[in-house]
């Protein structure tokens, strides 16, 4: 990407363009090892090495984050009443204005991707893509093989004339309280909870553990996040 030095440095939060212009005249900027006093010079972010105040600067256009979303936090960039997932980010990452890819309910935990890449966001959420999303669920009620078959056929949601796409239901434990994995291929509002309600069960705890080819990093504590690895990003793409 070709961009002016002052714009590049200001875009990643290193100062205002007017301050960077002053710093350039003071010899604080080097391009490929040579002092550059013209802050309007165009650089190639893929080829040129930019050094600012003795630190090599890498320009990032897009940011890709994996968060282990906690309960009580909403999947939004801002909210008048509740803390949002963006509120959990460091200032250096907030700078890039990332937004959650899709949403998890306020009381649902687990994997949430945040990015400022609109194309990736569209590809992951497009109904035509049918990206798998897998959840771990603890359910009040006995989940049976009959429920597994019903999920495979698609569930007609209560109070809505809509039948879901086929979903995979895998029983871990079955009893008065059941544990299971559910994989859906769409993102209807409260979908997993509503699917269980339609078969007479109530979800008590829900955690998303994967989205597409990306699995939740279980070493992430609730509310923690990290940048996606190159390998994970390739899988998403």
Automatic annotation (TrEMBL):
The keyword Isomerase applies. The lineage of its organism: Bacteria, Bacillati, Bacillota, Tissierellia, Sedimentibacter. It comes from the Bacteria. CDD domains: PseudoU_synth_RsuA, S4. It comes from Sedimentibacter acidaminivorans. Its EC number is 5.4.99.-. This is Pseudouridine synthase. The keyword RNA-binding applies. Belongs to the pseudouridine synthase RsuA family.
């Amino acid at each position: 990407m070709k961009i002016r030095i002052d714009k590049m440095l200001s875009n990643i939060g290193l100062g205002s363009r007017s301050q960077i212009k002053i710093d350039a005249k003071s010899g604080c900027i080097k391009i490929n090892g040579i002092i550059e006093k013209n802050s309007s010079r165009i650089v190639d972010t893929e080829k040129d090495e930019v050094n600012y105040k003795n630190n090599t600067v890498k320009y990032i256009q897009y940011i890709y984050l994996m968060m282990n979303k906690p309960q009580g936090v909403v999947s939004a960039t801002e909210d008048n009443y509740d803390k949002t997932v963006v509120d959990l980010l460091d200032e250096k990452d907030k700078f890039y204005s990332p937004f959650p890819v899709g949403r998890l309910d306020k009381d649902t935990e687990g994997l949430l991707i945040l990015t400022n890449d609109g194309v990736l966001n569209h590809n992951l959420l497009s109904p035509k893509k049918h990206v798998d999303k897998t959840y771990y669920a603890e359910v009040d009620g006995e989940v049976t093989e009959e429920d597994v078959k019903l999920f495979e056929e698609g569930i007609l949601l209560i109070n809505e004339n809509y039948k879901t796409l086929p979903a995979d239901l895998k029983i871990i434990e079955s009893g008065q309280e059941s544990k299971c994995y559910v994989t859906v291929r769409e993102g209807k509002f409260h979908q997993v909870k509503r699917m269980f309600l339609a078969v007479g069960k109530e979800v008590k705890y829900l955690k998303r553990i994967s989205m597409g080819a990306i699995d939740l990093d279980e070493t992430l504590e609730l509310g923690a996040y990290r940048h996606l690895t190159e390998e994970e990003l390739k899988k998403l793409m």
